Triosephosphate isomerase (Rheinheimera tangshanensis), 248 residues
Amino acid sequence: MRQRKPLVVANWKMNGNSELVQQMSEALSVLKQPLPDILICPPVIFLADFPKHPNYKLGAQNLSEQLVGAFTGEISADMLCASGASSVIVGHSERRALYGEQDSVISQKVKVAIEAGLTPILCVGETLAQREEEKTLQVLARQLDAVYAAQPHLLAHSVVSYEPVWAIGTGRTATPEQAQQVHQFMRQHLAQYDAEAANELRIIYGGSVTAANCEALFAEADIDGALIGGASLKVADFSAICTMAKDS
Ligand code: PEP
């Protein structure tokens, strides 16, 4: 039996509306236990619209690395908690690439999130060019070390999501074997900081996961769930993925 409870995360990005909130919450509410942990990360404006239900929790897609003050447009960790979020995605490749988020800022965001009581879902992943240059493991080690080398105590309170940039929104998913190899590497790499926490760490996979390909991914020993973009906007598909994760 798997020792880590599977986690399925929906990243709606800048999509969705009140109708989708209603349809998704209704569909998830009727799923029968046992279920994986299910986390919905809609745009923050919709957090308050989700009815509370034991079948799912809510999260955000980003947070400020600052605590309070003159930071126009930013949202603090405390504000996310007050809005009903229990977790927050940190370091998504779109934020790294489009908003210039560097490892140092991402590291600070992970720290601030945990100190406020949020679970950070730290996204790491290589670009296609880095994979082709056989730098995948080196890039991932750098992204992980940037967060945990100076603050290893944060590992026990985190989730890590492996998201190869070339697989996000492209329809080109990593094979289960490719993903498993990376997850296993990351778990072993992180064990240098805290062996027990690395063993208990949930490492989920993200990148073009669908109801059709998730089962093979979930069957791998070190894949503890998925972070889902496009398919999380389709109620039937997302519900099906959650149902399959509980059986893994
Ligand atoms: C993502 O948003 O992190 C993601 C994995 O998206 P998609 O499932 O659409 O590839």
Notes: The two ends are 9 Å apart (CA to CA). The chain has one domain: 7-245. The first strand starts at residue 7 and ends at 11.
